[in-house]
Design brief:
Low-confidence stretches: 1-15
Largest sheet: 8 strands, antiparallel
Number of helices: 13
Radius of gyration: 21 Å
Mean pLDDT: 91
Number of strands: 10
Shape: globular
Distance between the termini: 59 Å
């Protein structure tokens, strides 16, 4: 397909001079960032030299440095502070993306390459809580981007509609356990909306970080949710990434959840072409999700470790796990319930990412029982 046109002009921005308004916003935002107390990786690595090198560059989709860093400039409390407005941004603006990716993913140098997709031995991943008394629910998700399209800040309204048609058609063709229904956000009935809210499926318009990244344009056009009959398989369409493919169920049977995800991804990939890079693996809007894009997580009740948060964090760190509050990032644990997931997604296989979570959660359960 043809390269994307900018949403506010009729020519390809990549061939145009920098818009004076973009230049002004960049200069103002960069000055504010430099003088802020931000601890973000963006501030750490966006030196004056890097800024001067990148400020006049554009991708063929028309993306500028402003598109990449505007969220981090507007939100000094960001941890990362940068998004990729299109797949090319990772190379065009490599001088800022590379060091951030290297630090966040625990070491990924310019010479490193993400390995080929490898789901591993599915039967070797089992139930992390066979006694069924600690893990409340298990979820594994991955992100995918449709080949040939930019990401949210550069998508046109017509592209949103075009993508939704392609994706919903593919999802509605799934059979067996994956068979289900697609619910477009545009024109959604109150009844469907209420049911999806009750199921905790319905995503809302983006948070302030996504809003500042210009990732919520034309909302709710082109957005929607698919879920199977058993409500154990879910796909978000055009929320943060083009697709968020999710497998989940109550309890701790990670093996069942993982197998379902692998089956779904392989069936969808047989009909849709996704954007993959030899160096970074699958490309996503946020650089934290590059590579496998896998996030395997459990909601787990550990009341004893909850009283010794430093010990919980220490065990999690040994297995490269991330500990969040009950409702996710920036929230507190309720009733000793934490969201624990793998942190590493880049530079390892899908199987290795899930196995880290599996082994780490098993260790946390063992320690909780021994306390």
């Amino acid at each position: 397909m043809a390269k994307a046109k900018c949403h506010n002009c009729e020519t390809k921005c990549g061939k145009d001079k920098m818009n004076p308004e973009v230049v002004r916003k960049l200069e103002d935002g960069f000055r504010r960032l430099l003088t802020s107390n931000s601890q973000s990786l963006l501030k750490k690595y966006l030196t004056q030299a890097v800024y001067d090198k990148l400020k006049a560059k554009k991708t063929s989709f028309g993306s500028t440095l402003l598109d990449c860093i505007q969220s981090g400039m507007e939100n000094p409390d960001s941890h990362i502070g940068i998004y990729a407005p299109d797949p090319e941004a990772y190379t065009t603006f490599a001088d800022i993306f590379d060091p951030i990716i290297d630090e966040y993913h625990g070491g990924f140098k310019k010479t490193d390459h993400h390995p080929a997709t490898n789901w591993g031995d599915l039967n070797s991943i089992g139930n992390v809580d066979p006694d069924d008394n600690m893990v409340i629910s298990t979820r594994v998700r991955c992100g995918r981007s449709l080949n040939g399209y930019p990401f949210n800040p550069r998508l046109t309204e017509s592209q949103y509609k075009e993508m939704e048609k392609k994706v919903s058609g593919t999802l509605m063709s799934l059979t067996g356990e994956l068979q289900g229904k697609y619910y477009p956000l545009t024109g959604m009935s109150k009844r469907d909306q209420q049911q999806l809210i009750e199921d905790h499926f319905l995503f809302k318009e983006g948070d302030r970080f996504l809003q500042a990244a210009n990732a919520c344009r034309f909302w709710p056009t082109g957005r929607g949710i698919f879920h199977n009959t058993n409500k154990t398989f879910l796909v978000w369409v055009n929320e943060e990434d083009h697709l968020r493919i999710i497998s989940m169920q109550p309890g701790g049977n990670l093996g069942e959840v993982y197998k379902r995800l692998v089956c779904a991804v392989e069936e969808i990939e047989a009909k849709l072409k996704f954007t993959r890079n030899d160096r970074f693996g699958f490309l996503t809007f946020c650089p934290t999700n590059l590579g496998t894009t896998i996030r395997a997580s459990v909601h787990i009740r550990v009341p004893k470790l909850a009283k010794d948060k430093s010990k919980l964090e220490s065990v999690a760190a040994q297995f490269n796990l991330q500990v969040r509050g009950t409702s996710g990032e920036h929230t507190e644990a309720e009733d000793g319930i934490y969201d624990i997931s793998n942190k590493r997604r880049l530079g390892l296989t899908e199987y290795e990412a899930v196995k880290e979570m599996h082994d780490g959660v098993c260790q946390i359960i063992q320690i909780e029982k021994s306390m």
